[in-house]
Write a structure and sequence with these properties.
This protein has 340 residues and is of the alpha/beta class. It is built from eleven helices and eleven strands. 41% of the residues lie in helices and 13% in strands. The protein has a six-stranded parallel sheet with strand order 2-1-3-4-5-10, with helices on both faces. A three-stranded parallel sheet has the order 6-7-8. Strands 9-11 form a two-stranded antiparallel sheet. β3, α6 and β4 form a beta-alpha-beta unit. It is elongated.
């Protein structure tokens, strides 16, 4: 900084203020510094320039997987909204492993973030880590939440009762009542969607039917999990003329592949097929499957915006701000396509 300020011809305090906030120096000095920086090989160290500040301007984001299109879409919205709010995000992946999730929470905390957004797995290890995290920095859960721990933390997610209710209503109105291919019990969404399915089916006077996953180990590779379950059932002549509601689109992709293996969607369309398959999430590739997937579209834009807004208000609370941790849920929208 000393060498650079001498080379540019401004004082070191002026140069320091410029890097913290260009608008804090005079227009003449600002133009002089900006022009000089174009001629030198100098990049301010992001972390060192924040060591002596009350705020680092960093938000930590912990997600289960980066190869899941839903989470990458959500992360895209979160990053853009964070930039608008003046923050930089640092991401960590838990890779479906509770121990890696707990380690990610500790690593993010070591970076002195202003706040953290987490889509948790729901395991005990992560819950304990997040309770420690929440005692030190503002924390918001997004998309899912631990089932039994960290109860006093804000949550932004999809209203699973609404979304599952809408698609069950549609499937029952247009054909045979659906059986449910549930998610492996890996996060809160798996429990909530199964519960919502059972309650809606009973409210409509139908017997809920959960597709047996016996012999297939729970796994975050939902496509493979769904394929293995339905391949085993279709091979035995089960569910080949049924309506199947999958708790997420990635499960439905596996079910669609298994159905196509057995020729259950002649020509790839619904017109001559006895089977119907529907999903949940509106994964970006859902409309390009064969057949294209009927599903519920989560409002990813609203989820990401609300999560950043909530975290921003916790980081810089207004005098009259609501202090009680809240739950903000968004409706999903039905997307009708060829599969059901």
């Amino acid at each position: 900084m000393k060498e650079l300020s001498t080379a540019i011809g401004v004082s070191r305090p002026t140069l320091s203020r410029f890097f913290q906030d260009p608008e804090s120096v005079s227009a003449v000095s600002r133009k002089k510094i900006q022009q000089a920086l174009e001629t030198v090989d100098y990049v301010p160290n992001f972390f060192f320039t924040r060591l002596n500040r009350k705020s680092t301007g960093v938000i930590g984001v912990i997600l289960p997987h980066f190869n899941d299109p839903f989470f990458t879409s959500l992360l895209d919205v979160i990053e853009l909204e964070a930039i608008k709010a003046g923050f930089t995000i640092i991401t960590q992946g838990s890779h479906g492993d509770p121990e890696l999730e707990a380690r990610a929470a500790e690593k993010v905390l070591s970076m002195s973030p202003d706040g953290v957004l987490v889509a948790p797995l729901g395991g005990r290890e992560g819950g304990d880590a997040f309770e420690r995290l929440a005692r030190k920095v503002p924390l918001v859960f997004v998309d899912s939440r631990p089932a039994d721990t960290t109860t006093g933390i804000d949550f932004v997610g999809t209203d699973n009762a609404q979304s599952i209710g809408v698609i069950v209503n549609y499937l029952c109105r247009t054909g045979a009542p659906p059986a449910l291919l549930g998610m492996p019990k890996l996060n809160s969404n798996s429990y909530e969607r199964e519960t919502a399915y059972i309650e809606r089916m009973e409210a409509l006077g139908h017997e809920p039917l959960l597709i047996d996953p016996s012999g297939v180990a729970p796994d975050w590779r939902f496509e493979e999990y769904g394929f293995n379950i339905m391949e085993a059932h279709f091979s035995r002549g089960r569910f080949d003329d049924s309506t199947i509601l999958c708790a997420n689109d990635r499960l439905a992709f596996g079910a669609l592949r298994a159905a196509n293996n057995h020729g259950l969607f002649p020509g790839g369309g619904k017109s001559s097929a006895a089977i119907r398959i529907a999903g949940h999430d509106d994964n970006p590739v859902s409309r390009f499957m064969t057949p294209s997937l009927t599903t519920m579209a989560q409002d990813v834009e609203s989820l990401g915006r609300a999560a950043i807004h909530k975290l921003s208000t916790l980081i810089d609370p207004k005098p009259d701000a609501e202090e009680t941790p809240g739950i903000q849920l968004f409706d999903a929208a039905l997307r009708l396509r060829d599969s059901a």
